[in-house]
């Protein structure tokens, strides 16, 4: 698979190739050497393409492909930016409807009432596009976040980028001590939905804040520090509960795990 772009975008591609990551199942950490090797390959190959094709077309930034030889392969290709996609009408409905949930005490969409928790908020946002994110929850065990992650993982719709697309789901780890053991070992504890993304990395997301309900807050994976600030305040909103064990970052970028394209699921009754 080759994405061709004009040579004037080479500097942007080169920068994004440096930022690429590899998504691994569950708690396995991706080897840094592998990512560096893949990114170096992308840069060299892109340069070769630019020399061979005098029209100045180059290979896109570092991309990881699923193993097509394995029938059980569930990885999804990584992209330098989810913003490269054309925004669908469904994504627009999710974003606009989701934003309307801010401050609501009752999460009701099209006659269905959703739970007042993080999974309930993203389900309600997707309901504006007539998408039921819980339609496969019965296949999986665990909390709503884990079941949602498993649904997307099995569909090959989990991916990691620095600039996601509006409507993407965001998964976080260790936002609270879910198993009450006092350790930092709590995977898939929170979920939200991307509302907007700016080229400078500023991501606005909708989620359920356990003290005030549905809110839109901030994350920036290009500036992941917990204390990074701009004229609006923290660029990464505090996300980890104060009662959770210490020894780990508390901001949205520090606890970020991965994104998921829920709007691309094969929903029952939809074409």
Please tag this protein with its features.
271 residues, alpha+beta, six-stranded antiparallel β-sheet, two-stranded antiparallel sheet, disordered N terminus
List the helices and strands and how they pair.
Layout (H helix, E strand, L loop, with lengths): L3 E2 L4 H9 L13 H21 L5 E2 L29 H11 L7 E3 L2 E3 L3 H10 L16 H11 L3 E2 L9 E4 L17 E8 L5 E7 L3 E7 L9 E2 L2 E2 L17 H4 E5 L11
Antiparallel strand pairs: 1-2, 3-4, 5-12, 6-7, 6-12, 7-8, 8-9, 10-11
Mind explaining what this structure looks like?
With 271 residues, the chain is an alpha+beta fold. It is 24% helix and 17% strand. The protein contains 6 helices and 12 strands. Strands 5-12-6-7-8-9 form a 6-stranded antiparallel beta sheet. Strands 1-2 form a two-stranded antiparallel sheet. The longest helix has 21 residues.
Strand composition percent: 15-25%
Q: How big is the Rg?
A: 19 Å
Order of helices and strands: EHHEHEEHHEEEEEEEHE
Tell me the total number of β-strands. 12
- If you average the pLDDT, what whole number results? 77
Class by SSE composition: alpha+beta
Helicity, as a percent range: 10-25%
Question: Sheet bearing the most strands, described?
Answer: 6 strands, antiparallel
Tell me the number of helical segments per DSSP (H or I, 4 or more residues long). 6
Span of the ends, CA to CA = 26 Å
Widest sheet, order of strands: 5-12-6-7-8-9
Low-confidence stretches: 1-80
From the spread of the alpha carbons, the general shape counts as globular
